[in-house]
Amino acid sequence: MGILESSTHSSSQVAINEIERQRALMIDLHDLVLPKLDPCSGQAKLVQQLFQDIFNSSSKVISFLELGDNSEKQANRIEYKRTHGKNNMESHVLEEETKEVGNKRRKNVKHIGSVVTEAPHFDGYQWKKYGQKWISKAKHSRSYYRCASSKGQGCLATKTVQQKETNGGGTVRLFNVDYYGQHVCKKDGIIHPYVAKTARHSAPIVNHNQSSISTFVNNDVHRIQDESYENLFTVPDMSEYLIDIEMAGALEITSMNLPLISEDIWA
DNA sequence: AGGATTTGACCCTA
DNA sequence: TAGGGTCAAATCCT
Length: 267
Hints:
Helices cover 37% and strands 21% of the residues. The protein is an alpha+beta fold and 267 residues long. Strand 2 (127-134) and strand 3 (141-147) form a beta hairpin. It is globular and about 50 Å long.
């Protein structure tokens, strides 16, 4: 690795770290400012909108910086395709494509967080499945999803869903959900019709792999009828889904956004 | 017919 | 070199 390359890489990482620190400070500021405002006032709504916009903006910056770090590896991959690919047209298409979307290899994309849940698909975003694999030594296959806005808006967020191995043969199925990459897509603002009513607590999130320190929390949860399994899930507000502030930022959730519910069903 | 899912192959990373 | 993430053709579904 050349000196120039390594210095570019570390500069990007420093910038990402600084932006993430700013986001943490932003949340502190949010908590300080919001309680002092009348929640019904236009001023409070404006302040929340401003916080939201800043969060969205920083998410995009982080995504671009992460792509920048991967540019050289991506160039190598294009070169490999050019010399080993089935034909030159295919390589050309890949090259054109990667100019737009960056590195497709997820291992270079930052791991945002993970949750253990009974309802792995109800996380407020629309996902498109692009693969499924049996992982060695695992009892259940792993499914791969990318944000449904990956084409339209170039959102690079992905997630993997894998059923946990249960000991004791309990009837409850638990899933590990790992999130990668920041969402840069805009939500459409449509409340999912499956959200029938709200209740309190009894969320399906069983365990967070880190302590939940998200401060954009209200305690409402949403009961959701799953079409294919006819199970009634109780899904928390998105902020309870998040394992940490970073993930809250990645999914761009604040208390002012009601959750959108994915229509996905279990694979 | 077009979108979603499945599945085997490809290939990157550790 | 094995494991696992992604691609893309085949297949399914609406």
